[in-house]
């Protein structure tokens, strides 16, 4: 995040304080998650700098259709999104990552008042913000290093501009239905009256295609999952043997979601931040859900959070959807 160490420059702690706070939150979440039954660690912790880079690599895989199809949809509909949004808006991206798809909107909306990328990975955010400032020198880029699920305010520099949210990649699918509704309600509050949200959602389809997308033949997704254990080892002084765990992902048609776990390949133990944990052979640690939607699911989700669907775009095969939502009156 540029030179800001916290969410906003005016209230930012020092870089060392911010890093210490992030590590403390990570430690608490990991220990709490490993003490639960069943065990689970929040998916947001997959995205340290290396995890973010690995996810970018996943997006380039042939099996991971989501990125290429959503990009194609956005390429076609970006001018209409710009028309619906109107001039002089502030574009707010939740979970910005490398902001690759965002450039399609930035190019279509040259008169933006500001671009506000929100991401939990400070290092990744720093690099992305610097690149965007170089490529769009007239655009005020105001990054926010934060968890968008808990963010309560935006930088003062956004001002009174109309706010257009951007939540691509079907990241909404990583949230359970109650979490998704809670996020959208929070987003609506941040975007304000007259605000809108451009949402990417993966659609229900052939289960084999879904399975292949999360179990790529080159093993990048597995490396992405196992990087969570690598991060725990590095940041929390843990002793996980990465070779003794495997990435496991499968589609649950009953819940309409991909479920992702780290599965223990043998009975083993590991120490995390001085605390010992025993794992049985076959025991799993949940890391992520990826919910898939149909039109009725999307309609219900939007309505539950106070949004009205203005427009939806899909590819010819109806694999993915981009939806333009406006805050209901």
Annotation, overall tally of beta strands: 13
* CATH homologous superfamily label of the largest domain: Vaccinia Virus protein VP39
Q: Widest sheet: strand order? A: 4-3-2-5-6-13-12
The structural class is: alpha/beta
Tell me the CATH topology of the largest domain: Rossmann fold
Summarize the biggest pleated sheet.
Answer: 7 strands, mixed
- Number of separate helices: 9
| Assigned CATH architecture of the largest domain | 3-Layer(aba) Sandwich
Question: Your description of this structure?
Answer:
With 329 residues, the protein is α/β, with parallel strands linked by helices. It folds into two domains: 21-45 and 220-291, no CATH class; 65-205 and 293-327, Vaccinia Virus protein VP39 (Rossmann fold). 37% of the residues lie in helices and 23% in strands. It has a seven-stranded mixed sheet with strand order 4-3-2-5-6-13-12, sandwiched between helices. Helix 2 (49-58) runs antiparallel to helix 8. The longest helix has 21 residues, at 15-35. Residues 1-11 have low confidence and may be disordered.
Brief summary:
Helices cover 37% and strands 23% of the residues. It has 329 residues and is an alpha/beta fold.
